[in-house]
């Protein structure tokens, strides 16, 4: 439906599990100039599927990231949403994948998203922006702060991203943004944690009463939906 609304009336959609494709089988004709993706988090792939990847892990988002890098042409650009723990996890697969990303691509931007950006995700997320073909020399971080609590009725919008889009053009440093030289990255862990050296801004936490009101509202909404379903049975 989204594609139709954006003028793509006959999209070429293939219903398949992308991860079942062996990376070694991907040829130049199979590559793309741009990849934008929000892969599933938290799922666990079968052992036979993991065999298709040089860095083997059950984490689907890590397998997808390897796939995205592989299918990009030289000079191709990627924008991938991934859980923020990818930046600092110490397991072998995470460290190896960060190393591969930094060495095979220019990871020029990491957008640190606030909690609630993606409803139902259950974890905080970051967006990785990279270009394939040259190693990373410097990574610019931006800590997105819309100044309000995000939720189902108060989602992120274009205005919230306006400052990021403007600042990213020149990779400007500010209280919300900073750069890290690749030479300063620990070569043992390749830790890419989004730690704002400027301290950032104080987070305004919701009161317990506000949280309880939201829970009550969600419960009421769920009860209404269940009642409607029951009426159909």
TrEMBL record:
SUPFAM superfamilies, alphabetized: S-adenosyl-L-methionine-dependent methyltransferases
InterPro entries per the UniProt record, alphabetical: DNA_Adenine_Mtase, DNA_methylase_A-5, SAM-dependent_MTases_sf
Entry EC no(s): 2.1.1.72
Any coiled-coil regions, as ranges: none
A Pfam family: N6_Mtase
Reaction catalyzed: a 2'-deoxyadenosine in DNA + S-adenosyl-L-methionine = an N(6)-methyl-2'-deoxyadenosine in DNA + S-adenosyl-L-homocysteine + H(+)
DNA methylase adenine-specific domain: residues covered: 1-203
Molecular-function annotations in GO: DNA binding; N-methyltransferase activity; site-specific DNA-methyltransferase (adenine-specific) activity
Gene3D superfamilies: Vaccinia Virus protein VP39
EC supergroup of this enzyme: transferase
Sorted UniProt keywords: Methyltransferase, Restriction system, S-adenosyl-L-methionine, Transferase
GO BP, one annotated term: DNA restriction-modification system
The UniProt record lists the keyword Magnesium: no
S-adenosyl-L-methionine found in the keyword field: yes
Family affiliation: Belongs to the N(4)/N(6)-methyltransferase family.
Protein name: site-specific DNA-methyltransferase (adenine-specific)
């Amino acid at each position: 439906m989204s594609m139709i609304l954006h003028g793509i009336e006959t999209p070429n959609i293939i219903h398949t599990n992308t991860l079942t494709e062996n990376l070694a089988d991907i040829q130049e004709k199979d590559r793309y100039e741009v990849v934008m993706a929000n892969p599933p988090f938290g799922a666990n792939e079968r052992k036979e599927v993991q065999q298709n990847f040089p860095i083997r892990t059950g984490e689907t988002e890590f397998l997808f990231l390897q796939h995205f890098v592989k299918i990009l042409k030289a000079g191709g650009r990627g924008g991938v949403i991934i859980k923020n723990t990818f930046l600092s996890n110490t397991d072998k697969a995470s460290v190896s994948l960060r190393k591969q990303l930094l060495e095979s691509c220019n990871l020029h931007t990491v957008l640190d998203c606030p909690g609630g950006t993606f409803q139902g995700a259950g974890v905080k997320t970051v967006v990785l922006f990279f270009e394939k073909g040259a190693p990373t020399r410097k990574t610019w971080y931006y800590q997105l702060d819309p100044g309000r609590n995000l939720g189902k009725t108060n989602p992120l919008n274009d205005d919230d991203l306006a400052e990021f889009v403007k600042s990213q053009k020149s990779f400007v440093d500010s209280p919300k943004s900073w750069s890290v030289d690749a030479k300063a990255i620990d070569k043992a862990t390749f830790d890419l944690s989004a730690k704002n050296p400027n301290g950032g801004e104080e987070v305004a936490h919701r009161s317990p009463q506000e949280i309880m009101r939201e829970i009550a509202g969600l419960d009421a909404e769920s009860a209404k939906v269940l009642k409607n379903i029951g009426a159909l049975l």
